[in-house]
Amino acid sequence: LxxxxxxxxxxxxxxEGSEASxxxxxxxxxxxxxxxxxxxxxxxxxxxxxxxxxxxxxxxxANAAHSMCGDDAAKLENVRTHEEGLATYIExxxxxxxxxGT
Length: 102
Known about the structure:
By secondary structure, the chain is α+β, with helices and mostly antiparallel strands. The protein contains 2 helices and 3 strands; from the N terminus they run βββαα.
């Protein structure tokens, strides 16, 4: 469902030291995915890619929720936790549908 997006992939550490990250602009159908291949286990790269791509689909919703939080750190963390949970759910759903014998 992201075939119409312009996706850029970068390798190496990001500013926060994450294993992987996504910076999406859904209004422009553009996203940059970054993977620190020194931290991502080789046998899990597919899951990491799907997880970061899932962020593209939920970015708009998460961004709207963030804007409603203002500067409330607890609310912002709550939104972050739910966004990551949803991206992980989508990741596992896609993985479950694409595994051999499934």
